[in-house]
Amino acid sequence: xxxxxxxxxxxxxxxxxxxxxxxxxxxxxxxxxxxxxxxxxxxxxxxxxxxxxxxxxxxxxxxxxxxxxxxxxxxxxxxxxxxxxxxxxxxxxxxxxxxxxxxxxxxxxxxxxxxxxxxxxxxxxxxxxxxxxxxxxxxxxxxxxxxxxxxxxxxxxxxxxxxxxxxxxxxxxxxxxxxxxxxxxxxxxxxxxxxxxxxxxxxxxxxxxxxxxxxxxxxxxxxxxxxxxxxxxxxxxxxxxxxxxxxxxxxxxxxxxxxxxxxxxxxxxxxxxxxxxxxxxxxxxxxxxxxxxxxxxxxxxxxxxxxxxxxxxxxxxxxxxxxxxxxxxxxxxxxxxxxxxxxxxxxxxxxxxxxxxxxxxxxxxxxxxxxxxxxxxxxxxxxxxxxxxxxxxxxxxxxxxxxxxxxxxxxxxxxxxxxxxxxxxxxxxxxxxxxxxxxxxxxxxxxxxxxxxxxxxxxxxxxxxxxxxxxxxxxxxxxxxxxxxxxxxxxxxxxxxxxxxxxxxxxxxxxxxxxxxxxxxxxxxxxxxxxxxxxxxxxxxxxxxxxxxxxxxxxxxxxxxxxxxxxxxxxxxxxxxxxxxxxxxxxxxxxxxxxxxxxxxxxxxxxxxxxxxxxxxxxxxxxxxxxxxxxxxxxxxxxxxxxxxxxxxxxxxxxxxxxxxxxxxxxxxxxxxxxxxxxxxxxxxxxxxxxxxxxxxxxxxxxxxxxxxxxxxxxxxxxxxxxxxxxxxxxxxxxxxxxxxxxxxxxxxxxxxxxxxxxxxxxxxxxxxxxxxxxxxxxxxxxxxxxxxxxxxxxxxxxxxxxxx
Length: 805
Known about the structure:
The protein has 21 helices and 38 strands. Helix content is 30%, strand content 22%. The strands form eleven sheets. Strands 8, 11, 12, 24, 25 and 26 form a six-stranded antiparallel β-sheet that branches. The two termini are 60 Å apart. It folds into four domains: 2-225, no CATH class; 254-344 and 351-462, no CATH class; 468-602, Immunoglobulin-like (Sandwich); 623-793, no CATH class. Helix 18 packs antiparallel against helix 19 (722-733) and helix 19 runs antiparallel to helix 21. It is of the alpha+beta class. The relative contact order is 0.11. It is globular, with a radius of gyration of 35 Å.
């Protein structure tokens, strides 16, 4: 199998909208999808769906008939669609879907523009630049009968601006070089055919230009498409071959590898299905990690046989906290309901120090995760995001419930870090350096891997010997057993159970002893969480049976009637308990330090899961991206200027100092004169508004001089007062305003000083500063005139400056 990564460049030629399925209450009805840094992006599922549709169009043109070789090749690349293709809904008749060989990443803002924005502004100024990439577009519903806007149907959609460039990766995994070449040419043709993407693309939005690998081989692609594609390897869905050889577990020591998983994309560790929402677990279960680890692992012998025998175990990965050790909160731990010090509350163990605990109201820690380091326990929480998807009916070109409709994925957010372990028999591990290299790399994990989910970077290091049971010798009269993961154990009736008796039976079976004969049942105390284990067999295409299991965090404090040897304790700590241990079930530890030291521990406030945020350097934008960057900066500055103007004109003392008259008073200048000024400014092109205002002021000055000489005057009976005319002239001409602590500042510098967080530094861009100064002067005057008129008609009204002022 050969995997090749193709680079896809996407340039937005028009404004566009790819939404999240939700809005922002009171402001937006639909929002643009944004990545972790807040930039608009194109989800991989959208990109894959649109390219698949374009590929089917290309295949139809190349085949010039029905289901020809190119149509079959397209289905091989993108996978089958049994439901969309109208197959029977009954499980007996419906063919199970076949996965495609093409994986897409989300299309994110070009690194150059992203680095440029990070380099010119820091938080919170950067937020202004990010928000400037979008704008709110109003819309209405037209009543079919009246032809006018329907009542209560005004809506605002968030629209991303044109000119942005995005980059994505397409990974193609095929068996030979010829297939790779055919796939690259076929996908390049699909990129050429695709002209629009996203919502409302039939109403002017979403015009794009796609380029695959720079499209430098357009001639080669055309020649390759003139020949039929190679026959794709057929994959018949069905059960895999069962292991026929006996799989007896090997004896010997274990090699333990600590594996760190960094999420490069959102990851869907599917939990429950609630309506049309697929929830996600807060950790990465071993059953989810095992297939990926199996593909990466390079060890002598048959890996399938070793997994089946339990000689390779992949433990769950829990969210990384402030220390290297993360555990599930023990079921016997409690904390005060109202601690004296919320920043550091004391840990209580159920049943111990009864005299002290009797006066303290307590509650359980729950089944969350704790970062453990010495005498400190810190709760660790994971960040999740909700992402909306849909399945489009090709005929209706909209989602329908018959083929899936609209559904929501709850996924673990990207950039988070999880830590787990892989245990391998030392006889199978081979060279340690080679083992660590094979377990370090990039892999896809979880559900919807072909649609922008589950890309993970793994880093492997050898683990130290942290198992206290391995150092035990002699005899003991009891021990504490802690379950790091869920354990599937069976009771006397061979049914999965979550109780003390089932755990005893599992220990007897694992250690080859009869622990129950020596156990002091009256003194032994158990704190067992019962969980429900579910699953899905991809090979069979059917759900696995659900059954009860002992939950992670359970604790059993065994006490014996007489001393017993520690040999079997070491064995169960190393080998684990119960079934399906290769998937991470049944990992336990004996007498862990956090149980022995619990009475002196303190619980601190929760922290977020460890995160690796990419650090950006400085970048120089060129060409079209330079124009886009400048347009974003100017838009951000304009919005910041409007916000500062709103605060300035609301101050009555500043208003009089700026304009020469009191806001809202029925005095000169009159509304008629102010209306003429507003009309003249609005009718002029945006870049000429300041000059239009100055032309009015010059004419006013000339007319005043003519009247003094006894000459004729026009029919303009309402005039600006000399004080107001002088103030307007100062604002529009860029002269010093003569107010405040800095009387020598012009309007642009003065407004800039009023901003809490200017969107970056305009630097030496004199032309841009002059453009903004001209725009700011007219915006300031228009805002003042608007507030003056409103205060006259409705005293006390609050002025809101529009984005087009």
